[in-house]
Amino acid sequence: MWNRPRFDLKVRLTLRVAAISAACFAVISAYFLITADRAAHARLDDIAAIVAKTLELQQGKIQWVASPRSDFPNLDPVSAYVMTPGLCLAFRGTSGDILQRFCSGAPAPANPPPQAFTAFYRSLFDPGREAARPVIVRGAKLGDAVVSVEPAVQTAEAWHEAGRLMLALAIALPLLCALVYAALARALRPTRMIRTGLERIAAKDLTTRLPPFDLAELSAIRDGFNHLAESLETALAERSELTRKLIALQDEERRHLARELHDEFGQSLAAIRALASSARQTAAQDCPSLLGECDGIARTATGMMETLRGTLFRLRPPDVEELGLVASLEGLVAGWNGRSRGETRFSIRFDGAFETLPATISASLYRIVQEALTNAAKHAVATRVSLELTMGASEIALAIDDDGRATDPVAKSGMGLLGMRERVAALRGQLSFDAKPNGGSALRVVIPLAAADRPPLEHAA
């Protein structure tokens, strides 16, 4: 099972792009507001310069014509050209008093700015700041021309401009995120192929290969993946071949040991039985008191011959290739039922045509069943053991269940489970041994008959 990440990579990257874009928009907005504030103050400075120049001309004209009536300062002429909503023009004398002031009204904005924006803007830019220019005539300063704008008007204008920018952000940011997500989804589409390939490798399908990719980084991953799959396939093939040779050597050694036991111990036990029979005849004539010992020797030799016969049967089972797998396994189960004397009940069921099985698979299945029955009867102390062998179109499934102690066979029989694993691995199969919740154990073996055809990896993604 693959652990799913908490966040999808496309979502994570899209969120990062959105955060960076929002930060860029914020910087642009700040730059825009700063630039707008500077432009507003530059405009006020220019108006203040115009007002001051106009007042200087008025005062010069009065002095030139020597007019007794003085209407200085007169802001009406200049206000007709520079007045805008919320703008105030004033003349401040040298004493600091406002001698004349002229302000234009400002209509209430249709969409007033939020209070948060108003507080933020006024704390940073001071929209009520005045622009003043001195009025100097013949070297003497008469006062200052003062120009200002209502803070509410300047704040509303800034909000109006910032609102357009925020509207553009509200439209552009989701669109940008959608485009980025689509581009990332397209660029990361090969990662699904890589994940599918890894899942197939985990399922022991080492024939899996990744197709070429357009991106250089993914192509490097593809090369490494394919090289790893080829190396694993080669290593597994070499391991399977070595396991096959080891199993063949083990079987040959068993056959050789069986011949030695049969030729040496079998003949010796037969000779002991013959000598015991001869001694009994002699004892019956000359010393009847030795008849019990002679019979005991004969019984012991007979028991040893039966034990030897069972050992020989396990070392060298009947020729599966000649008898067939079904007949061989039925004979094996019948033999166990006979030897257990009712203490353990063995049953077997077949489903499929096993006559066409290759000899290597038949022999390995026989050995696996033989070892499993030995473990169940001798080590698990089971009272019921059921076997089911099923043959499908592409694989063979063996299921062995018992009601004995749920202990790992390898802990009791040494190389029992390991030997079964080696035989299954040599056939490119899978073996599992699990304890049942209600007691007992379950052995499952699946052996493929041929490599199953799979769809190309390009279409599997």
TrEMBL record:
Recorded superkingdom: Bacteria
SUPFAM superfamilies the record matches: ATPase domain of HSP90 chaperone/DNA topoisomerase II/histidine kinase (SSF55874)
Ranges where the HAMP domain occurs: 185-237
Organism: Bradyrhizobium canariense
TM stretches of this protein: 13-34, 165-185
Name of protein: Histidine kinase
Keyword annotations: Kinase, Membrane, Phosphoprotein, Transferase, Transmembrane, Transmembrane helix, Two-component regulatory system
InterPro entries: HAMP_dom (IPR003660), HATPase_C_sf (IPR036890), HATPase_dom (IPR003594), Sensor_HK_TwoCompSys (IPR050482), Sig_transdc_His_kin_sub3_dim/P (IPR011712)
GO MF entries: kinase activity
Compartments reported by the entry: Membrane
One of the Pfam families matching this protein, by short name: HATPase_c
